[in-house]
Amino acid sequence: MIQRLQTIWLLLVSVLSFLTLQTSVYSGHRINDIVPKPMISLTASYNPLLNITSVAVGVIAFITIFLFKNRKLQMRLSFLGFILSLITLLLYYWQSKSFIAEESSITITAIIPVLIPLMIVLAIRGIWKDERLVKSTDRIR
Q1: CA 33 distance to own-chain centroid
Q2: Is the pTM of this model over 0.90?
Q3: Which residues of the chain have pLDDT under 70?
Q4: Which of 2, 107, 117, 123 could cross-link 6 (Cys pair, CB 3.0–4.6 Å)?
C-alpha cells in the first residue's frame, strides 16, 4: 500500500485539502461592507459550500488510499475527488469576486487548491498503471 506512489499523492491531497480550511487564498475588503472592516481572508471555512467541498475532497482522498485492492472503485473515487476539487477552485473564484479588486490580493498559499487537482491526476495515473500491470500479468497466465 505505502510503496505505491499514488498513496503518497492521495495522502498529500488529503492533508492539503484539510489545510485549506486554515490557509488564506485571497484577502481583502468585501464589496458589500458599508463600514470598512479589517481585511478578510478567504479560506475554505469562509463559505459553507467551500467548506463541504474541501472536506469532501480530503475525506475521499483518504478513503481512497485504503481501497488499493479494488482499483476500479479507487479510480472512480479519484475521479469524483478530481471533479470536486475543480468545483472547489470554481467556488474560490466566485467568492473572490465579492472582494474589492483594488484593495485585495491573492496570497501565496493560493497554490494549495491548485495543486490538489494536479496531485489527484497523478494518483489516477498511478492507479491506471497498476490496473494495466495487473491485466498484463493476467494475460500471461
Answers
A1: 30
A2: no
A3: 1-3, 32-36, 139-141
A4: 123
